[in-house]
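Protocol step 4 of 5: obtain the predicted structure for the target chain.
Materials: sequence only (see below). No template structures provided, no constraints applied. The aim of this step is simply to have a reference model before the mutagenesis design in step 5. Sequence pasted as it appears in the construct record:
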Amino acid sequence: MSHLDRLVEKAVADAREREKLPLPSAVSPVRPFPRSGLIAEVKRASPSKGDINPGLDPARLAQAYERGGAVAISVLTDRPHFGGSLEDLRAARAAVSIPVLRKDFIVTDFQVREARAHGADAILLIAAAAPLATLRSLRQRARELGMAVLFEIHQESELDAARACEPDLLGINARNLKTLEVHTGAFVRLAPLARDIAPLVAESGIRTAEDARRYRREGASLLLVGQALSAAANPEDATRTLVQA
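Step 4 output (C-alpha cells):
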C-alpha cells in the first residue's frame, strides 16, 4: 500500500464510526468560493513534518487569516495524521465571514454530506484517492449540496480525471501523497496543460513572498498555504505578506 492508500483507508474507517451518529441539522447557507487569492490553512500537524501547531485555536487562527487578507480558509479535518477534526472546521467557519474548505481524504458519499452538515462551503477531492466513477459521483453530490470542489492532481496522467469531474478549482500539489516527496516543478510543468479545466490552485511548498510571486507568474489563480501560516508567530502578518506578494 502507498502512503495515500493508508491515509484513505484510515479516513474511511473513521467515517464509518461517525456514520453511527446523527449529523447536525442546522446548517448555515453556503458561501460562494472565490476564484483568486490566498487560501490559508488551519493545520495542526502533517505526516511529513510532524507537529506544526498542535495547540492552535482554530477560531482565532482563522480570524487572523481573514484580517491578513485571505479569501478562504482550509481546515484539515483528518485526526489520525493531521490532528484535525470536524470541530476545528465548525469553529473556524463560525469565526469568519469568508468560505471554508474541508480538506480531508474524501471518498464516500457520507463524507460529502458530513462536510456540508458541519458548515463546509467546499471540499477537496484527490484524483489519486479513488476511481474516476467514485470521484464523479462525489463531485455531483457536492454540487447538489451547493458546495464547490477543489480537485487535486499531482501528475499529467490525472488530467483526464480532472476534466471528467468538471471541478470549480483545480489544485496542483507539488507533494506526491503516495510517497510524500515534493516535486517543485510540478506546477510549472502541469499548468499549461490544465489551465483550460478550471482556475488553478498551487499547493504545497509555499513559504515566502517570492514563492507566491513565482506561482502567480506561472499561472496560479489561488495559493493554498498551510505550514508556513499555521506555524507563524504572527499568522496575520504572515498572511498579509503573501497576499501582498
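Step 4 remarks: The beta strands are 37-42, 45-46, 50-51, 72-76, 100-103, 122-126, 148-153, 169-173, 200-203, 222-225. The chain has eleven helices and ten strands.
Proceed to step 5.
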